[in-house]
């Protein structure tokens, strides 16, 4: 599979959709250029992931598959745009068209993609995953680590913001292997989200620490049997929220708690499980297995 060519085909398919026209405002920098979609697809493409999983069916990729991949990409782009708006991580789009139009763009992408995916046999399963992802996103926006969320609640309610989207893609790509892919992608999504959580601890452009989001590195700080130590950790978080300590001091407390090591170990165990599952289920697809694991960042360190 020539990934560079396929990504360009997905981009071209999306770029030809007329729904973006009203957001260009006659500017030389169209909205897809503001979004930097071509670069975004080269970093990670949900449409390409769809085609990776589809390839396990041993069917050739044709024009209709590229179109469906583009629809998947637009659906996930709508989620990305909403997530960036809520997190205030990437203000370029809002600065270009305003917050109100960002919301309209999110809705346009969502409606356009769902209307095109509606006739697919997996559309009902897709809606279930989409609702699960929305709940995870709601939890991520409305809850903080101070709210007393447990690791199990994180896994069951917040993690689906990533895992459910992966499962949605697989539901369209290979519905006959749905049971396998849902289990595989639970481990894969956990590893991927933990990588994001760990990266956000030391990334000043991310809002996870400033907003005390319920990410696992923060939640594990408070899962301590010693009540005095637990109270101290919670006081550190409360103090940071009130402006009493710096973000550097908070990072030092996170490191000292050992939560990062726990998250790294959990992530690596999930990666190992993914590799084991994939090679056991598809032993003949050595190159495709390796490609998918690499693409999802599941190669163990």
From TrEMBL:
Molecular function GO terms recorded: prenyltransferase activity
Keyword Transferase on entry: yes
BP-aspect Gene Ontology terms: isoprenoid biosynthetic process
Keywords, alphabetical: Transferase
The keyword Magnesium belongs to this UniProt entry's keyword annotation: no
InterPro entries: Isoprenoid_synthase_dom_sf (IPR008949), Polyprenyl_synt (IPR000092)
Similarity annotation: Belongs to the FPP/GGPP synthase family.
Protein name per its UniProtKB record: Polyprenyl synthetase
Lineage summary: Bacteria, Bacillati, Bacillota, Bacilli, Bacillales
């Amino acid at each position: 599979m020539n990934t560079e060519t396929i990504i360009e085909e997905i981009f071209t398919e999306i770029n030809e959709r007329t729904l973006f026209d009203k957001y260009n405002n006659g500017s030389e920098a169209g909205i897809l250029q503001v979004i930097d979609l071509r670069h975004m697809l080269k970093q990670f493409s949900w449409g390409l992931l769809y085609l990776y999983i589809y390839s396990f069916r041993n069917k050739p990729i044709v024009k209709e598959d590229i179109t469906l991949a583009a629809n998947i990409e637009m659906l996930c782009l709508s989620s990305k745009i909403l997530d960036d708006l809520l997190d205030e991580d990437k203000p370029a789009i809002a600065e270009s068209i305003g917050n109100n139009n960002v919301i309209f763009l999110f809705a346009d992408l969502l409606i356009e993609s769902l209307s095109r995916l509606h006739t697919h046999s997996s559309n009902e399963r897709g809606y279930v995953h989409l609702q699960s992802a929305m709940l995870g996103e709601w939890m991520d926006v409305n809850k903080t680590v101070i709210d007393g969320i447990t690791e199990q609640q994180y896994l069951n309610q917040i993690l689906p913001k990533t895992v459910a989207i992966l499962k949605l893609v697989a539901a369209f790509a290979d519905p006959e292997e749905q049971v396998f892919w849902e289990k595989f992608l639970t481990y894969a999504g956990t590893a991927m989200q933990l990588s994001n959580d760990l990266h956000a601890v030391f990334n000043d452009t991310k809002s996870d620490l400033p907003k005390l989001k319920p990410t696992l590195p923060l939640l594990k700080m408070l899962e301590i049997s010693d009540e005095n130590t637990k109270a101290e950790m919670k006081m550190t978080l409360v103090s940071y929220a009130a402006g009493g300590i710096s973000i550097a001091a908070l990072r030092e407390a996170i490191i000292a708690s050992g939560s990062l090591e726990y998250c790294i170990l959990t992530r690596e165990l999930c990666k190992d499980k993914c590799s084991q599952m994939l090679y056991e289920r598809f032993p003949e697809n050595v190159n495709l297995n390796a490609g998918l694991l690499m693409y999802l960042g599941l190669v163990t360190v």
